[in-house]
């Protein structure tokens, strides 16, 4: 069995060995178990369902949170010569959807958004075709986004619950607190899942939290930090406008940078992502819309100009640095007022009691929610969240739930702020937050343990070329080894 898996790994994917955790996860899937797999960002999660796909007899259904992520996975599979792959998303026309639905069982890998899975027609079709495995990719979104702006995530459990003889479910994520794990179990209706958990510590990423006096001061520090180091990076900011502003100002300093946010056309976003992957630009200045599914191994820095919205989001975002294993740096620049601003951003588009009243009043008067959006009385996010809760709970209950969720958002910002501003080791705190412990700390661990930036800059430069050579040598030698 293991020999066969290694053979497929080499023949289909070109790797001579599994990364930590992959083999065990795949074996559990093949034994028909429900599996929750926690692997750090960039450690080969997609292989965990792609490889079993070649052994299992029927289709693999992958529920994926982002269009960019879906397209990336589809491209990956197509590059490997796989033609039986389809992304079923909201960009297809009605007739395209119907045509695809009619022959859905012909596809080996079917990618769907949670919104798509819960549509009646799609649900019916999925019930009627043989499926070998259901995958929830980036499963932490069930918890993070489900309550927030995509309640369809919460409907997945209803779908999986309907399906009594359902195939095994695989939940993949790079971050999981106890709460997220509980949500994954509940909302995916998992049956005593086997858990495979890898250490979430990424020893090659160094953490720094640096206080600055003013917003202008922040810009200067960020510009200097980008300029001092070599290698690509991602600058995370909170709003579309800020992303554009940073990019414009940094370009004048000779930095090859472009902005990326959800307010841009899909085609423009794809273009920026491609430029970044092809090294035509070095930096992307983005909102948190950027990152999932962007496979760039040599990102040397991730900079935040604000407190991220949660520890989970922070570790996802900084996890995009150093996938190649070389030294990388995650820096937060903050001012004293930043916490209030982060809380405002996190709760601004979240409905409260007044929005519930507007929604209910409209419903009573037969006014469609879309009209409320077009009259700017509610946002699309408000409508999505309110439609979900008010169809399941009473008005009073909904108000209570929304209040709880709002408090939770604020608490999540306090948690990440405490970790980054506390006087003890940032690495230790993050790993502890996810219920794990670290084995050892690297030199120059974080700004609390004491770090010399110059050393990291130099070692980063030296390491990145060394690693490239190393990996070529390794690849060659393992190739010869396999042929022997
Ligand atoms: Zn430390």
Task: Provide a descriptive summary of the structure in words.
- With about 475 residues, the chain is an alpha/beta fold.
- It has 21 helices and 13 strands.
- It folds into 2 domains: about 1-195, P-loop containing nucleotide triphosphate hydrolases (Rossmann fold); about 200-230 and about 295-484, no CATH class.
- The chain has helices spanning about 1-15, 20-30, 45-55, 65-80, 95-100, 115, 120-130, 140-145, 150-160, 180-185, 215-230, 240-250, 265-275, 310-320, 340-350, 355-365, 370-375, 380-390, 395-420, 425-435, 455-484; strands at about 35-40, 60-65, 85-90, 110, 130-135, 170-175, 195, 205-210, 235, 255-260, 285, 300-305, 330-335.
- About 40% of the residues are buried.
- The model is unreliable at about 465-484 (pLDDT under 50).
- Zinc ion binds near residues 445 and 449.
Fraction of helical residues: 40-55%
Task: Using the CA coordinates, give the radius of gyration.
Answer: 23 Å
Would you count the extended β strands for me? 13
Give the rounded overall mean pLDDT: 86
Largest sheet: 7 strands, parallel
- Total domain modules: 2
Overall geometric form: globular
What separation lies between the terminal Cα atoms?
21 Å
Strand content: 5-15%
Which molecules are bound besides the chains?
zinc ion
Number of helices: 21
Q: Trace the largest sheet across and list its strands.
A: 3-4-2-5-6-1-7
Instruction: List low-confidence stretches.
Output: 464-484
Assign the structural class, choosing from mainly alpha, mainly beta, alpha/beta, alpha+beta, or little secondary structure.
alpha/beta
